[in-house]
Amino acid sequence: MSSVFDPKEDSVLTGGPCSPALQQAEQRMMQIYLRVRPFSKEELDNDEDQGCVEIDDSQTVTLNAPKGSATMKSSEKGVGPSIHRFSFSKVFGPRTTQAELFEDTLKSHVSDFLAGRNALIFSYGVTNAGKTFTIQGTTREPGILPLALEATFDYIRGRLYDGMDLKPFLRNAAQSLDPDQVKQERAAKAAIFASVREDCDHQRSSSESQMSSDSVLSASSSSSHDQTVPASSPAEESCDLFALWVTYFEIYNECVYDLLQAAKKRPSLRVCDDGAGNAYVKDLRWINIQNLSEAFKVLQFGNKNRSAAATKANQSSSRSHSIFTMKLLKIDGQTVKRVSEFSLCDLAGSERCHKAKTFGERLKEAGNINNSLLILGKCITALRSHQTADRTKNGYVPFRESKLTKLFQAFFCGRGGASMIVNINQCASTYDETLHVMKFSAIAKQVVQVIPDKHLESLNPSLFGRDGKPLLRNGLIDNKMLESYLSEEELLDEDEADVSLLPQSELLNMIENLRTKLLAERRRNLVQEMEIRKEMGDAMLQQILESEELHNRQIEELKENHAEKLENTFEMYKDAIKEHAYQCAMNNLEDNYVPLDEFTAEQKKVESLEHKVSELEGLLSRSRGVPVVPTVDRSYQTEPSADVKAENDRLKRLHKEKCVLERICEDKQQLVLSLEKRLAEVNETLRDVRDAFLEKSAQLEDLQKELNEQSKSLEDVLQQKNQEIASLKDDVAALSQQSPVKCPAPPKAKRGLLANIKEAVSSPRKGPISRRKTTRTPNK
Ligand SMILES: Nc1ncnc2c1ncn2[C@@H]1O[C@H](COP(=O)(O)OP(=O)(O)OP(=O)(O)O)[C@@H](O)[C@H]1O
């Protein structure tokens, strides 16, 4: 079965009713290019080449579902075709060079951009399909972005406006900067370049994929694409100058981040409306570029900040949508005559979670990526159905449901030409996702873009002050006037107009209308959100079921494999045992083998010898007078002989003895074990006692030391006291010699004290009893 998606067959798409104004405008289908990337070596090794992608001609490609793909399974159940054919504006095969791609896809857009029209190029495809390679390329093969920059500088060479005082403003206006603001611009630019220089110093000779400005510069200047730039008009050559400003930002997890912000934690930026229906990113950093080298440095700086992570499918997968925008200001003196914009968007890879092995943070990213791509798809489908005769569906295009589509809206609504480069790989394992991408692009191809045949001057935002005067002079926003008429919030907030001049009744009406609209909008959003959630839930459930089925199948296969292996091993062992038994039997047979005739001859010999023995025994007994015992044919004897019996008895006895000995041995062993245990316990106790002893002796030593010190100090005190007493004695003796008569009798208490002292000196160890005796002496 096969199906064909060819917009040419759909007659409605080529035209359709349109207003007279639009009839003057250029109507064209959105250009959709297909690029098929070559297989990598690993993919060829992994048998990914199964002829899934066939390029029929320069515009058509056929996809053949490989075995095992969901498409093939559905086709086998009769649900859908297994072959799909798609047509594109142009198909580029695996051997297409970057320069060739640029020539055939971007040439016209660059010309438009230089001539003052806006352009948007975006790359779309599954992860690892070659989107980043197409947009950015490598140092040896620069992509369409470096080539577009080169073409732009070729065009404006020699006509660069070197002042930095005219800068893009809002979506498509310009503003004049004062000297302080110019200084700030220069400082921001210098900071970026300094950072890039540092990086270059660190990675002077790093891998090819890292884009260094110098190497890209040399590569792009050596790339052999034709001169793409349009010849300048004579008027432009005479006096017009050009200023080129660039910006680089990413949309990651539905947040906009400036890739040219040097800060480590970049703030999320707001998407606002410029008052003329154009969405733009507020507070985005614009850098004025004077040459190609500077442009590459900015690109390099931004790439360093871009969110990338390794998924199972791609080692450095871009996890965000990145948008590089150039704005060209055409300047005459100090007047900006026009502003044109050229954006290149590298979309994050669409992917299925289980295939890309995404979990946690990566799963959230995948959800956001898939959601914004889903909304992009919805917008394109809605645009397409709005443009066809299918008017049963409402005309609502959900641009505002994702940041990406909000920013793209202007292009889809005719404010510039948009083209999509669809990137695919040819791998069998990603066939189903690739098919999804192709179906999406088939719808996108049918979108008609209506591009007004007007110059951009007339598309500038219509900003008017309260007095009705325009805020634009010579294409420039007059900042002072702007400040006096509108507050920043009024100017920047989405969907807000200047209503302050309206009478109160109208304002109330307006509020009521807005309330109704808001409620309706909320209801519709809720329904849409539920639809999206349901879609995503269904998709996830489907994925879970698929993976469960796959796992079950794998488990079954594993079980079968193991059972088979087990059976084989079992059989192998059985054979080996049989073989071994047979060998043993054969060996025994060989050892014990006696030929039959030899055996019978031997038996006969034995019989004759036995016969002889019995005859001799008969003779012997007869000669002794003992009655002859009739000979017994031993060959028929069944009773065991006496020797055998004795031997058996001996064996039994020995066995009994052995048993007894074994029992004794066991008992002894038990005893030894218990003794060993006791010994261990005793050792343990001994160790404890020894430790305790050591501790006690240490304490004893300390006490001894303390005692020694105390007795020493006591001796010192005693000695001191003795000396004092001796000197006191001397004093007493001297006094008694000097006046033996006059000297009054010492009071009783003093005599007692002296006697005490004397007693203490004469017998210091006698203690209180001896002291009591001495105290009594004076009373006698
Ligand atoms: N035309 C091509 N020729 C040679 N190699 C290519 C081509 N296109 C892509 N490649 C290589 O394929 C790999 C994947 O490409 P790339 O990183 O551009 O994929 P992607 O679609 O941007 O993936 P993601 O969405 O995950 O970022 C890279 O190693 C790249 O060099």
Structural write-up:
Helix content is about 55%, strand content about 15%. Strands 3, 7, 8, 11, 12, 13, 16, 19, 20 and 21 form a ten-stranded mixed beta sheet that branches. Strands 1-6-5-4 form a four-stranded mixed beta sheet, with helices on one face. It has a four-stranded mixed beta sheet with strand order 9-10-24-23. It has 20 helices and 24 strands. The N and C termini lie far apart (about 150 Å). It is α/β, with parallel strands linked by helices and about 775 residues long. It has a domain of about 400 residues: 3-Layer(aba) Sandwich (Kinesin). The site of adenosine-5'-triphosphate has 16 residues, from helix 5 and strand 18. This is Kinesin-like protein.
Oligomer: single chain
Top-tier CATH class of the domain at 34-156 and 164-219 and 231-301 and 315-461:
Alpha Beta
Tell the overall outline: flat
Portion in strands:
5-15%
Query: Cα distance, first to last residue?
Result: 150 Å
Mean pLDDT: 75
The CATH homologous superfamily of the domain at 34-156 and 164-219 and 231-301 and 315-461 corresponds to: Kinesin motor domain
**What are the segments in which pLDDT stays under 50 over at least 5 consecutive residues?**
1-25, 205-217, 222-228, 352-365, 454-477, 482-498, 631-638, 741-750, 764-780
